[in-house]
């Protein structure tokens, strides 16, 4: 029996070379280039490795509509008989995309997301080892039924709770908490493309005007990047309360890289008060992953609380 692995590319540093004229990094490598560079053109007997170029973007530009396209592409590969799917992606929003895939992944087939911290033409390019690791993880029957995974610098992480924790370290991906809890049952994929779910960052003493402006702009939901275990200033807390009164779902995440949001404190901006008013805790999900989760729940018309476990 042949194990079929499909590699889908989206751009990012793993596909970048330096433009000799400007010095800027640009995604120039195709999936064939990557497969060839990783020595996967003639894989071991019993394996078939091939790929498809989907996007060529810096991952800071991946929109919710792009995520719809990526979810559809993964599903189509699985329908066509892939035993494992690898997605190469920029690292800046890699954990957002990995979670978007995970939340709707209702197949046993492993989906493994990877990237690189250094471009192809740099000494120490990490794309080859990362791609090989991702292919190995995607082909491993032990990873069946584990949802979407991140393979990076010889580590395999669940999508849920993962974060890019360093701007330059090759082992850039960590997990926010070892206590990620159970993976919620996948929800039906419904298009995210039309949703507007901003992340609004708090700072000490922040006024509420950014939250009020989002409400006025009729956003579909708001993720607050709060301080500490989930607290914002009095002014911002009062604006969050106004948003909740207008039935806009609000999720409280934190700018702290590790540990869960606990919504423990009182006062107008305290997490406990906001929770009592109906705001949800992002739990161990960072602001980016909380945004993806809220958007996925809103699109699928499921209670967002069921995905913030
Ligand atoms: N700016 C790049 C991106 O996210 C960074 C990387 O891939 O490491 O597309």
TrEMBL record:
It comes from Corynebacterium guangdongense. Residues 4-175 form the L-asparaginase N-terminal domain. The active site is at residue 13. Keywords: Hydrolase. Its EC number is 3.5.1.1. GO terms for molecular function: asparaginase activity. It is an enzyme of class 3 (hydrolase). InterPro entries: AsnASE_II (IPR004550), Asp/glu_Ase-like_sf (IPR036152), Asparaginase/glutaminase-like (IPR006034), Asparaginase/glutaminase_AS1 (IPR020827), Asparaginase_C (IPR040919), L-asparaginase_C (IPR027473), L-asparaginase_N (IPR027474), L-asparaginase_N_sf (IPR037152). This is asparaginase. It holds the Pfam family Asparaginase_C. Gene3D superfamilies: 3.40.50.40, L-asparaginase, N-terminal domain (3.40.50.1170). SUPFAM superfamilies: Glutaminase/Asparaginase. CDD domains: L-asparaginase_II. Residues 196-306 form the Asparaginase/glutaminase C-terminal domain. PANTHER family: 60 KDA LYSOPHOSPHOLIPASE, L-ASPARAGINASE. Belongs to the asparaginase 1 family. It comes from the Bacteria.
